[in-house]
Design goal:
The protein has two domains: about 80 residues, no CATH class; about 60 residues. Helix content is about 80%, strand content about 0%. The chain contains five helices and no strands. The longest helix is centred in the middle third of the chain and has 43 residues.
């Protein structure tokens, strides 16, 4: 893969992360106006379907194999449940933690879970062993989460941060 292709992938991954606080903030406002976070979660997921279906039709993607659908292990369908969990928790927690606090904590959870998935090669992933540098990187990210979420406490108590 060329350096330009890698740069494109990195930018797309960064964009995927950048949309999370926008989605969560918008859905939190929607939840306030709809009366409950779960209504906003449902609305968000319905809009996702309404946006995705025309894209699938425009690309003329073939229908999935009925044989695969009937034989796929149940864990392969869990992604939708995890999506509901993330959207619903984002709607509920973002107003309490703030956008940066929620995203930082969500990122910490993603890093820890990702490292475990990689280490054990779960769900068909290529194994990437835990190494000192990978664990140190995760600890640095978690340290950043603590500073983002609780740094104000240090600053209010006269403890310089940074």
């Amino acid at each position: 893969m060329s350096a330009l292709q890698w740069a494109g992938l990195l930018l797309l991954a960064a964009f995927a992360g950048a949309v999370v606080p926008f989605q969560s903030a918008i859905n939190s406002n929607l939840a306030r106006n709809l009366g409950h976070p779960l209504w906003a979660t449902l609305a968000s997921l319905l809009v996702s379907v309404l946006v995705l279906l025309p894209v699938i039709l425009a690309l003329r993607l073939p229908l999935p194999s009925p044989g695969f659908i009937s034989k796929a292990p149940l864990w392969m369908w869990a992604g939708g449940a995890f999506g509901v969990c993330f959207v619903a928790l984002a709607v509920m927690l973002l107003p309490k933690l703030g956008a940066s606090g929620f995203v930082a904590l969500a990122l910490a959870g993603q890093v820890i879970a990702s490292m475990l998935l990689d280490h054990f090669g779960l769900f068909g992933l290529v194994e990437k062993q835990l190494t000192v540098s990978r664990v140190l990187g995760a600890l640095l990210l978690i340290g950043g989460v603590v500073l983002i979420q609780f740094g104000g406490v240090f600053e209010r108590n006269g403890v310089p941060v940074g």
